[in-house]
Design brief:
The protein has 256 residues and is α/β, with parallel strands linked by helices. 46% of the residues lie in helices and 15% in strands. It has one domain: Rossmann fold (3-Layer(aba) Sandwich), CATH 3.40.50.720.
Length: 256
């Protein structure tokens, strides 16, 4: 069922990276429910297809593209396919990311640092680099980047991830200033502990690990992917037309 609560999505096109599961899948579905055509981009072809199936089940139009956000050619090809299929780009949710293996700063392998920063920060940059010209041609649009609670505080054992997610917020703010006068709004979301496959890996998939994470949340639970998705859709909507360069922390009070 399409709700169109935000009023400006019918016929528009949303590009979502990291769409194969978790927050990306929930957001792709949320855009579809609002009437947008959705491009689901991820390196997981099986997960991508499942997201597409769910969108089609609710009557949405969807394009599936394989995209490694660390590779400029992949990003350009995915966006070219978007324009070829739907003729436009209106919204982008740059969400693809990976978690870090827990390690003290001096114990982080250089290859691990590069893996995290390449995906979680450089990947966001590459997506924006090639999305923004398309939005300019369209006369404007909105971009939301995924940071993290680790983008606003330090995380013990997570220096690479924390640095990358802080970087996403800085990148978001600078890009927002670069293009605000050209009707492109750039914002970020900073999720706390969200119940996703990434969180399952982080907790080791055990009840003890989950309980430890939940104990850090003042609200006494993890967030749901749909709670982040709702915020992303709102940030892209006309209702958020005066929101520019903001990092919206959605973490149940964890970083207060």
């Amino acid at each position: 069922m399409r709700t169109n609560e935000n009023g400006n999505y019918t016929g528009k096109v949303a590009f979502v990276t990291g769409a194969a599961n978790g927050i990306g899948r929930a957001t792709a579905l949320a855009f579809a429910r609002e009437g947008a055509n959705v491009v689901v981009a991820d390196i997981s072809e099986q997960g991508n297809q499942e997201t597409a199936r769910k969108i089609e089940e609710i009557g949405g139009r969807v394009l599936v593209v394989r995209c490694d956000v660390t590779q400029a050619e992949d990003v350009k090809a995915a966006l070219s396919k978007t324009i070829e299929t739907f003729g436009r780009l209106d919204f982008a949710f740059n969400n693809a990311g990976v978690e870090q293996k827990n390690a003290a700063t001096a114990e982080i392998e250089e290859s691990e640092w590069d893996r995290i920063v390449d995906t979680d920060l450089r990947g966001v940059f590459l997506c924006m680099k090639y999305e923004i010209p398309l939005l300019l041609k369209q006369g404007g649009g909105a971009i939301v980047n995924t940071s993290s609670g680790a983008g606003v505080i330090g995380i013990k054992g997570g220096a690479a991830y924390t640095a990358a997610k802080h970087g996403v917020i800085g990148l978001t703010k600078s890009a927002a200033l670069d293009y605000a006068s050209q009707k492109i709004r750039v914002n970020a979301v900073a999720p706390g502990y969200i119940d996703t496959p990434m969180m399952d890996r982080f907790t080791g998939g055990t009840s003890e690990g989950r309980e430890q994470v939940i104990a850090e949340e003042p609200v006494g639970r993890m967030g749901q992917p749909e709670e982040i998705a709702n915020a992303v859709v709102w940030l892209c909507s006309d209702a958020a037309a005066f929101v520019v360069g903001h990092a919206l922390v959605i973490d149940g009070g964890q970083t207060v």
